[in-house]
Amino acid sequence: MKTYFRQRLLLLLPTLVGMTALVFALGFISPSDPAAVIMTMDGVTAPSPEEIAAKRVELGLDRPYAVQYAAWLGGVLRGDWGVSFITGKNVLQELLQALPVTLSLAGMALLWVILLSVPLGAVMAVYRHGAAERWLTLLSIALTSLPSFWLAIVLMQILCENLRIFPTSGYGTVRHLLLPGLVLGAGTIGAVMRLQRDALTDVLAENYILTARAKGLPLFYIVYRHALRNAFIATATMLGNYAGALLGGAAIIELIFALPGLGTLALTAVQARDYPMIQGYVLMVGCMMILVNMCVDVFYVMLKPNLRLGDGQND
């Protein structure tokens, strides 16, 4: 296990370096000049080309890409992620203030996924070719097909405005996260339901399951005690991959439900062409997704140790 973990850490470093290079390149491939954006923030000033050129020199934008990248990366490592064009505040501080909201929302979505998709997928596998399986398959297709913004608006109208079960917006309690988390995880719930069905169906056809059934053990006990653990290996991998996607895909949901998270911050930065904030957002979300994927790989090996790469011994 230690050897596998060391291999994953060695692969982590070049991945992070490559990601930072791509993040920094956002400032170069953007359609606008950051110097011009800063000088026209008030919507009234019309700077001359000479003034813009002087501002570029002040910001260090006239230097070669490699020099700028090295200076920017050094600042990132020191905790200096730049200053927002809009607020004038430190980018890292603003991102860290919004991070708990996004993590809470993604965590709630992942909780909904586990609580709903795993048992529903098990029902689909146990009652294969039955009415329950057909209806649940239809539900899973609908969840993966419906746009999240449309589902959010419909559920907000029904559950918030009409029935007043959940608050329509805001952040501060678990109730504020229940509905946004469900909407964010809806597509993942549908996909994981079908994956869990297929994985559990394969496991239920194994010889040791057939032997357990021949002994007269209750089907519920067999599924819960023996089958779910092995079937959950593929599901856990997919959940880990979707956990990173939930972090990056929360922007629209945060905007609809007025949650002050990373997504709302990023959308505001995009609208205002706040390049330091955009770069900081991409960098933070990218680092979290890389970390999540590494944790998924390690967890996958913990569930099934014989999958360790180059594992000829148990160290």
Automatic annotation (TrEMBL):
Subcellular location, record wording: Cell membrane
What are the alphabetically sorted keywords of the record?
A: Cell membrane, Membrane, Transmembrane, Transmembrane helix, Transport
Domain ABC transmembrane type-1, chain residue ranges per copy: 99-300
**UniProt-listed GO biological process terms:** transmembrane transport
Indicate yes or no for the key word Transport: yes
Protein origin, superkingdom? Bacteria
Q: Name one Pfam family in it.
A: BPD_transp_1_N
Q: Which GO terms describe its cellular component?
A: plasma membrane
InterPro entries, A to Z = BPD_transp_1_N, MetI-like, MetI-like_sf
Transmembrane regions listed in the UniProt entry: 101-123, 135-157, 177-195, 244-269, 281-303
How does the UniProt record describe the way this protein sits in the membrane?
Answer: Multi-pass membrane protein
Q: Which family does it belong to?
A: Belongs to the binding-protein-dependent transport system permease family.
Query: What is the name listed in the Swiss-Prot or TrEMBL entry for this protein?
Result: ABC transporter, permease protein
| Native species | Selenomonas artemidis F0399
